[in-house]
Amino acid sequence: MSSAARPSPADPPRALAPRPTRVGAPEGRDLDPGELRGIFGRFATGITVITAGRDEPRGMTANSFTSVSLSPPQVLVCVMRDASMHEVIREHHAFVVSVLSDRQERLARHFADSRRPRGAQEFETVDAIPGPQTGAPILGGSLAWFECDLAAVYDGGDHSIFLGEVLNLGHGPGEDALLFYDGAFRRLESHADWREHVS
């Protein structure tokens, strides 16, 4: 083995990372849902709007979206069991995911607002076109969109995990993504180049 591969006794010890703050429920007790939600929120995500249905489509804002497989092309979304979107996806066996840009916060708030109108009125002020494969709305100006056939449904506690096989997809202009972190919408501050941090 090369001597360069061995740390020298003169090398300074590596600084230890701060120990994580322990947050846990006493044995036999449930975790506090509010605290759990807050800690889940420390993971930054993009924002999507999920749509489903043809004649009277529904939409909902969601950040529980994940790419799953390239072959076959698959994605997943998680939807609360008591959300109206849950039954619409099951009924139509299909859904669309539109990934929002940082110029589309209004849409994210619209589809997250429980007071918004439902039925055809839900999309009256929204720039959208029916997806050619599913008929569900694709939102104009989105960074990307995926039309999906419902491939499987898995139990996820108070959510269902919908696995979709991608039938059709596309992308919009190269804008920045709308982000969600710590309970609030966020934007990228700059286009940092990783090369600037390499000495």
Strand arrangement, largest sheet? 3-2-6-9-10-5-4
Q: Beta-strand percentage?
A: 35-45%
Helix content: 10-25%
Residue stretches low in confidence (pLDDT < 50, at least 5 long) are: 1-9
Summarize model confidence as the mean pLDDT: 84
Helix count equals 3
Largest sheet: 7 strands, antiparallel
Structural class: mainly beta
| Shape label | globular
What is the β-strand count?
12
Rg over C-alpha atoms, rounded to the nearest angstrom: 21 Å
Instruction: Please give the alpha-carbon distance between the first and last residues.
Output: 27 Å
Could you give the order of the helices and strands? Answer: HEEEEEHEHEEEEEE
Textual characterization of the structure:
The structure is a single chain. By secondary structure, the chain is mainly beta. It is built from three helices and twelve strands. It has helices spanning 33-40, 84-92, 105-112, and strands at 45-46, 48-52, 58-62, 65-70, 73-80, 94-99, 128-130, 137-139, 144-156, 159-171, 178-181, 184-187. The protein has a seven-stranded antiparallel beta sheet, sandwiched between helices. Strands 1-11-12 form a three-stranded antiparallel beta sheet, with no helix packed on it. It has a two-stranded antiparallel sheet with strand order 7-8. Strand 7 and strand 8 form a beta hairpin. The chain is globular, with a radius of gyration of 21 Å. The model is unreliable at 1-9 (pLDDT under 50).
